[in-house]
Amino acid sequence: MRAYHRNKYQEKPLYPCEPWNITEDSFSVETNHHNEAIFSLGNGYMGMRGTLEEDYSGPDYTSTPGMYINGVYGSEEIIYPEEAPDLPRQSQTMLNLAKWSSINLYINGEKYDLLQGEVSDYSRSLDMKKGVLLRELTWTSPGGKKIFFNILRFLSQDKPHLGMIIYKFKPLNFSGHVLLKTRIMGDSTNYHHLRNKRELVVKDRGFQGEIEYIIQKATSTFIATGMACRNVLIPSNEGVIISKKHLSSEKGLSVEYELNVEKGKEYSLQRYLCVYTSLDLGLNIDFSELENKLKNKLINNLNIAVEMGDKNLLKKHTDYMAEYWSDVDVKIYGDLALQQAFRFNAFHLLQSTGRDGRTNIAAKGLTGEYYEGHYFWDTETYIMPFFLYSRAEIAKSLLMYRYHNLDKARKNARRVRLDGALFPWRTINGEEASGFFMGSTVQYHINADIAYAIYQYYNTTKDKDFLHNYGAEILVETARMWIDHGGYIPLRDGKFCINEVCGPDEYKPGVNNNCYTNYMARFNLQWAIEVIKKTAEENPKAYRDLKERIKLEEEEIDAWQKAADNMFLPFNKELGIHPQDDSFLYKEAIDVDAIPSEEISLVKHWHPLVIWKYQVIKQADVILLMLLLGNLFSLEEKKANYDFYEPKTTHDSSLSPAIHSIIANEIGYMDDAYNYFMMTARLDLDDYNNNAYQGVHTACMAGSWLALIKGFAGMRNYDGKLYFNPCVPRKWKGFAFKIKFQDRQIKISVKRDKTYYKLITGEEIRIFHKGERFLLSAGRGIEKSNF
């Protein structure tokens, strides 16, 4: 492992190491962008960056407010410097919605501003256990007025269309008049990508009683978004509220309260939020009618929220979080920094993942606009496994997203003149959104990644309904694509070859017979054959319906079998490795350690033609294959491939270190395993790559879970059987976690010398520990030696 990477995580953590909290103990303009991403909140449906409620007098560029709804996007024509036929024509960019969280306070004309006056006892803390962001501080105005603030916000996990800010303040050394202003502003812009920064335009805004609402519409996609807020001031008796004004402008709405406050008394503004979009209503009607229905939906649901009250709304949210942590939490003994990181990663994965079968999880979640809010293969290969063993219903919803966009994947295949379906590399709406085909469409392996995810889902849940009625159709269409894209090449002894592809290593596009792609394509074909046979036997009606619907012929299945049996699987006997592709071994070798650290990542500093000519790898490629289809390769093969490819890998993608950690673990390279694991776990918290301000790295976050569970716990799921090969790094005392598997819940506690297995719920099961098969019965624990 390069010292450049190893030294990063050895630096002092940016935040105090606490088991359940991420805490900022002073406000800094310099770190605000990063903190806005770290302190983001979300519930899978919507997300908001951790922007302060109040304005402050620092430069505008030190803050990037963001309010996003999963699946709401704008689009523009992709402009190519040189044209070619059948390229994607429209971009997709997640849109920044109206800002609803703006609250400003004035004392005798002095505006509360963190950069004016004096701030003491400052603390902003992300409470991951409860899923809330809490800020406390005392502010002394330039004129000497001292006031205490306690500000809590959350976006409800239990009721994903709702959110809330509870804004409390207490005058400490004065009584008198205070002006309190709340705003919902429709002039938000996108900060990246879109040429038309103001893609969302305000179509309607106003007040209905105490409710303020705003309706926006995307000018390109015509998606309508609605947001409504209502303030509840406590106490609200006649002596407190001197006046209240409802103000409207072209930019949005504001409510102004002139208050008479008393020294030492606490006041609370409860600001309720409700959000809906035209996508939620699913209506194909004219906009004026849609606008009315959207407004009514907002107002009715917001009134229900206010009737529930802040305590009930918060309790339902925290109850959801408690249940989530009961299943998902990983306990690490002896390393508080790592414990904090694991919970932070698991927290953001929950916040960012769509759960309705129509949305997915973006590379940056709902925490920033980088990568335009696009969904990638990250979902199936990295993120879905995290949910699969704790929240299988979320894993299923991610696969259903692919099914619901299968017709668009079929159209995408036709775009490049292929049969079947080709899932897009970058997307929100199911269509290909990347204009750089050498880094997107060429990565055909996404089809096999989705097929593999279906395999993992079925073997973990035994969900036959999904397999027969949804999974089978995806597998047929992805198999059809491989048969059309590949071909039998005489100079390869008539083997079935797949040319002009790119594997996971994006530094080698447009190659022939990428090893990962060929192996995974063969798996895709074999799994499709097995599922079609299984569906025919177990659900004849579903099989008949499928066969008729997509015109499936027996000859096709025979063709899949022939291609799978004759797939070209590269292997170099002299080196004892699997060549990454036909040309990799014939490229010039390069000393990756000699590359100056300031030139990492290469894609930002080297011309593509320079990168392509060398044996240099962006991220795990053959090494990833050694994990996913690990039962096909011997330990010696894994070691030989790791020894060959690891020194050539720059890890310019955050997806890479976790996979290297897992394979290093398996082959006994414990220092590499630990170093790559640490590089993964605190990537965003400690901002190793200086880019977390753009949004967190969701796949890397899931990768930390993979590196622990599949690395140090050594868990594998082959053909519906569980295998464990646990070990504990020298710096830890142990770790413990739970998994759900085939209607069972199992707790695994790993110590240095032994591992304890307990079946919490479900029927007895046989599992493997270091190659030994044993029976685990309900309510009983079994201890196994790690040596």
UniProtKB/TrEMBL annotation:
Pfam families linked: Glyco_hydro_65C, Glyco_hydro_65m, Glyco_hydro_65N
Domain (Glycoside hydrolase family 65 N-terminal): residue spans on this chain: 23-278
Residues annotated as domain Glycoside hydrolase family 65 central catalytic: 343-705
Keyword Hydrolase attached: yes
Gene3D superfamilies, per database record: 1.50.10.10, Glycoside hydrolase, family 65, N-terminal domain (2.70.98.40), Maltose phosphorylase, domain 3 (2.60.420.10)
Keyword Nucleotide-binding found: no
GO MF annotations in UniProt: carbohydrate binding; glycosyltransferase activity; hydrolase activity, hydrolyzing O-glycosyl compounds
Active-site residues annotated for this sequence: E506
Glycoside hydrolase family 65 C-terminal domain segment(s): 715-776
Annotated GO biological process: carbohydrate metabolic process
Annotated positions binding substrate: W377, D378, K618, Q619
Keywords: Hydrolase
Lineage top rank: taxon: Bacteria
UniProt xrefs under InterPro entries: 6-hairpin_glycosidase_sf, 6hp_glycosidase-like_sf, Gal_mutarotase_sf_dom, GH65_N, Glyco_hydro_65_C, Glyco_hydro_65_M, Glyco_hydro_65_N, Malt_Pase/Glycosyl_Hdrlase
Family label: Belongs to the glycosyl hydrolase 65 family.
Name used for this protein in its record: Glycoside hydrolase family 65 protein
Organism: Iocasia fonsfrigidae
Lineage, uppermost ranks: Bacteria, Bacillati, Bacillota, Clostridia, Halanaerobiales
